[in-house]
Amino acid sequence: MNTNQPSAGVASYVPVQGYSNGFGAGSAMGHWDESIFGSELMTPRLNAGANNLSSISVGLLNDLGYNVDYSGSLSGASSDPGRRFNISISFSGTEANRQTFESYFLEAASFWERYIYSGAFTNGDSSDLTIYASMFYSESLVLGSAGPTAGLTNTNRTAFQASEGVVNLNSYYYTPESLRDPTRSVAFTATIRHEIGHVLGIGTFWPNGSLYGVGEPTSTSSSTFADYAFIGANAVREYNALITDNTYSAPTSLLAPGESNTALR
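Now predict its structure.
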């Protein structure tokens, strides 16, 4: 059980999206809280405007064991794969799709490489992380899906480094013709960056003892909560800094004195 209580004006955890406000499996427990971090890259919904990566998400990578540059100013790893974390893309699909979509995946890989100097366990391979990318067609609300398929962790499962993963995006929303629209092109870029974040472990691997359900379960399932809390030290530090400068608000579900959280991960 976690008994840490937020002090006045200071968060002791980062709010994680729960089973509330219409969010269910696939969104809950895998993203930052939409109501607080709406325009952040790793929330459940794609924002109509900017979808910026915050230092909170970089802090979570740091909590996973990645060595990071919070400013995102590292030069591309592909120029020096022997010294830097390298993400390679293996795109499957028609030649027409490759010509249209592959450059977006390569840009997104380079985007994340600017934040990661090395992984928790290995660094300097020709490809520290290989992502298998493809398109699928579905007339649904799902823009895409992604996650790690192989990786390294320690005995206590407190650190993680992805080595392989998949990113699948919905061609119902993204076609070569639609991407001629600058707005749609920007949205596609944000979607791929978001999904690669999941491959790296954001929302798909929570270090052991770091994720808690807040309050009481919302159903008979002991792991279903309206709100969740992540207590990784680096992410919490960055969240507090962004509360201080009024970028984000403090948690809306503060625990009452004497109340406790239930450990889930």
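The chain has a mean pLDDT of 85.
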